[in-house]
């Protein structure tokens, strides 16, 4: 009966399904991507914000009797033991196990777990720390001492154990025990901070003598009747001396400084030691001793290593000495050094610069002028510009000093004029000097003199930099007529300078004189020699496009193509035709590509022809039909790999080189018999070689008969 019922139920389900209509799958007509895209990162962020993946917390378990508690402990211990058995080296499992036992007040079990863990990895610092913290937390002081003692014995280079051990003993009031631990630590000669911790510990309990003895051991360690340095650094001696000074043991502090000076000697002198020594004596009002210390150090330390020493000595003299003393002690030594350098080589302009920088900082204007006059008197003996490049800056610095520091405008003008008279303008000049002079006159509100100076410069020694500076000046003054005249003179001087032509045309465009700008461009492109003709033509074409003169732009492109058949010009023309007009732009653009392809047939650079065809193909892919796309695909070349023989400079063989070549379908169609001709040439060559080989025996017979 059950089978029959199931069978009848299945028939009823099938008939019901037959009566129901299966919904059709909706067909998506618009398969374009949506405007707002949703990334996987956004989905995850929304899921986290809505807390979709958060699981509810497990239900709280309440233990009501001892039997249930023991069962719970048994299950947890079994879980921990299983985790440890799976991977004994994961120390976090051991620590979690021990902390769980500690939470149940099972201290003996927790100790056992820690000991088992130490048997596995006794080098783990965290394990020792957790073990000792557990004992201290449960007030098991002797156990904690035992653990710290084992830790510092096993791992004596872990400073954290020593810090924790000494801190525990000090918190327990066991000062003697803490000192004993520090002494054990110092036997290992630890880092600097450990010694300072020991010293600070003794100072907290007013044990100054003990702290002094620690400092002595910290600085020097006696062994085998020799001084062996533990931390060879000046700052340790300075700290020791400041410790003595802080506790009012001034004689001890002075003795420490003297021992430090004697210890380092003259081979390892450090300015920081002498600065600290001098400041100590200054605090003791021993000013003569301070001067002696500074002089002693300055005479023996190299000058490049004594900048801080000089600075502190200057501050000291400003406090307790007079100005003459500062000049005599500090400046005189350096001045003597510079005097020796410039006497040895008067044309060493770098030494003059350093000397003048020193003199300007600490002396009066007359002395500075005297040194400047001596410096500029050393004119380079050779009239070549490379020998004058450093010398000219003496004049520039002299003029700037007179203008900015001395505030003497008349003397500044005299310096500029003297320099410009000295320069041999027929051989070379310095445009920066003329421009600086003109800018100075403008700052003095003397515009005619500035224009006269720049006009004289252009008349005597015209240079591109001079023209640009003069034009920039007139542009700032809004003297556009003068700018036009200057551009005309500039272009007469350098007609090949394309940048000047472009700037001139841009000026006329800004002023609204389009015809003048167009005429300037026409004059520019008609020049026989230009330094950057491609930039000039591009600027002219862009100018016409901005004016929306499209016919003139086409004419310009055609004129340019008469001069050069470069592929980039053709591509630029095609892109221009594509960008202007609405109805005729595609036929015009395609016509340009057709003309370019025909013109590039005779081009030796096949890469340029390939570049043109690729540009044409991209155009057809975007705007063309299937027929035009098929046509351009037929025009695309085949890329093949070839080999050619290389020759060295001396004519010997240098091996073979692989390169890529392009075979165009049009070239192979125009030359159908290339392969046949190549085979014919090879056959003819083989025939000649066989005839020559057949003729050689006859020659040998004739020679033997003769």
TrEMBL record:
Domain of life the protein comes from: Eukaryota
Read off the SMART domains from this record.
Answer: HAT
Region described as Disordered: spans on this chain: 1-24, 687-706
Q: Which residues form the Pre-mRNA-splicing factor Syf1/CRNKL1-like C-terminal HAT-repeats domain?
A: 92-387
What is the protein's major site of localization?
Answer: nucleus
Q: Which GO terms describe its biological process?
A: spliceosomal complex assembly
Asked whether the keyword Transmembrane helix is assigned, the reply is no
Q: Which InterPro entries match?
A: HAT, HAT_Syf1_CNRKL1_C, Syf1-like, TPR-like_helical_dom_sf
Localisation: Nucleus speckle
Q: Which UniProt keywords apply?
A: mRNA processing, mRNA splicing, Nucleus, Phosphoprotein, Repeat, Spliceosome
Q: Which GO terms describe its cellular component?
A: nuclear speck; post-mRNA release spliceosomal complex; precatalytic spliceosome; Prp19 complex; U2-type catalytic step 2 spliceosome
User: Hey, which family's this protein in?
Assistant: Belongs to the crooked-neck family.
Q: What does this protein do?
A: Involved in pre-mRNA splicing process. As a component of the minor spliceosome, involved in the splicing of U12-type introns in pre-mRNAs.
Cross-referenced PANTHER family, in alphabetical order? CROOKED NECK-LIKE PROTEIN 1 (PTHR11246:SF3), PRE-MRNA SPLICING FACTOR (PTHR11246)
Q: What is this protein called?
A: Crooked neck-like protein 1
Q: Which organism is it from?
A: Zosterops hypoxanthus
């Amino acid at each position: 009966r059950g089978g029959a019922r199931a069978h009848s139920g299945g028939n009823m389900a099938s008939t019901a399904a037959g009566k129901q209509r299966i919904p059709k799958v909706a067909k998506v007509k618009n398969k374009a991507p949506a405007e707002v895209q949703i990334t996987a990162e956004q989905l995850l962020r929304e899921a986290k914000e809505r807390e979709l993946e958060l699981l509810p917390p497990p239900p709280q378990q309440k233990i009501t009797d001892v039997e249930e508690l023991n069962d719970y402990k048994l299950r947890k211990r079994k879980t921990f033991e299983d985790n440890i058995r799976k991977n004994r080296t994961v120390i976090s499992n051991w620590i979690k196990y021990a902390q769980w036992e500690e939470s149940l007040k099972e201290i003996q079990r927790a100790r056992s777990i820690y000991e088992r863990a130490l048997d596995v990895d006794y080098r783990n610092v965290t394990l020792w720390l957790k073990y000792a913290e557990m004992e201290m937390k449960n007030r098991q002081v002797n156990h904690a001492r035992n653990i710290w003692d084992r830790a510092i014995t096993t791992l004596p280079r872990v400073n954290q154990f020593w810090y924790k051990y000494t801190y525990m003993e000090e918190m327990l009031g066991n000062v003697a025990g803490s000192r004993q631990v520090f002494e054990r630590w110092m036997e290992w000669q630890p880092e600097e901070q450990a010694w300072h911790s020991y010293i600070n510990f003794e100072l907290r309990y007013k044990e100054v003598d003990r702290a002094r003895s620690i400092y002595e051991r910290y600085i020097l360690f006696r062994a085998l009747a020799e001084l062996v340095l533990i931390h060879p650094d000046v700052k340790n001696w300075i700290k020791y001396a400041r410790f003595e000074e802080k506790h009012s043991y001034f004689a001890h502090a002075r003795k420490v400084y003297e021992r430090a000076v004697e210890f380092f000697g003259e081979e390892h002198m450090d300015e920081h030691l002498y600065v600290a020594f001098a400041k100590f004596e200054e605090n003791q009002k021993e000013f003569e001793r301070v001067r002696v210390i500074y002089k002693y150090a300055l005479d023996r330390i190299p000058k490049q290593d004594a900048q801080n020493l000089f600075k502190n000595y200057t501050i000291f003299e400003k406090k307790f000495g007079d100005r003459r003393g500062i000049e005599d002690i500090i400046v005189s030594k350096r001045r003597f050094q510079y005097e020796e350098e410039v006497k040895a080589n008067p044309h060493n302009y770098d030494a003059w610069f350093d000397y003048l920088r020193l003199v300007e900082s600490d002396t009066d204007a007359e002395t500075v002028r005297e040194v400047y006059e001596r410096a500029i008197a050393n004119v380079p003996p050779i009239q070549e510009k490379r020998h004058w490049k450093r010398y000219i800056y003496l004049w520039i610095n002299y003029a700037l000093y007179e203008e900015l520091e001395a505030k003497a405008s008349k003397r500044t003008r005299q310096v500029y004029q003297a320099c410009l008279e000295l320069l041999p303008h027929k051989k070379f000049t310095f445009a920066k000097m003329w421009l600086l002079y003109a800018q100075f006159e403008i700052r003095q509100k003397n515009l005619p003199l500035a224009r006269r100076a720049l006009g004289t410069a252009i008349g005597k020694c015209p240079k591109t930099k001079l023209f640009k500076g003069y034009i920039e000046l007139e542009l700032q003054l809004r003297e556009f007529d003068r700018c036009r005249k200057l551009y005309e003179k500039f272009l007469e001087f350098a007609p090949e300078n394309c940048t000047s032509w472009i700037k001139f045309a841009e000026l006329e465009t800004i002023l609204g004189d389009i015809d003048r700008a167009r005429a300037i461009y026409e004059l520019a492109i008609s020049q026989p020699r230009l330094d950057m003709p491609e930039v000039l033509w591009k600027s002219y074409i862009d100018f016409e496009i901005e004016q929306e003169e499209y016919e003139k732009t086409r004419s310009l492109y055609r004129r340019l193509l008469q001069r050069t058949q470069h592929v980039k010009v053709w591509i630029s023309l095609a892109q221009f035709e594509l960008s202007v007009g609405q109805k005729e732009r595609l036929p015009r653009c395609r016509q340009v590509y057709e003309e370019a392809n025909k013109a590039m047939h005779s081009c030796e650079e096949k890469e340029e022809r390939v570049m043109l065809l690729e540009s044409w193909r991209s155009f057809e892919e975007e705007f063309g039909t299937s027929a035009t796309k098929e046509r351009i695909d037929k025009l695309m070349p085949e890329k093949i790999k070839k080999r050619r023989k290389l020759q060295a400079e001396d004519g010997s063989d240098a091996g073979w080189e692989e390169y890529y070549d392009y075979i165009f379908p049009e070239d192979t169609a125009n030359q159908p018999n290339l392969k046949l001709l190549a085979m014919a040439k090879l056959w003819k060559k083989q025939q000649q070689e066989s005839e020559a080989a057949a003729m050689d025996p006859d020659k040998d017979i004739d020679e033997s008969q003769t």
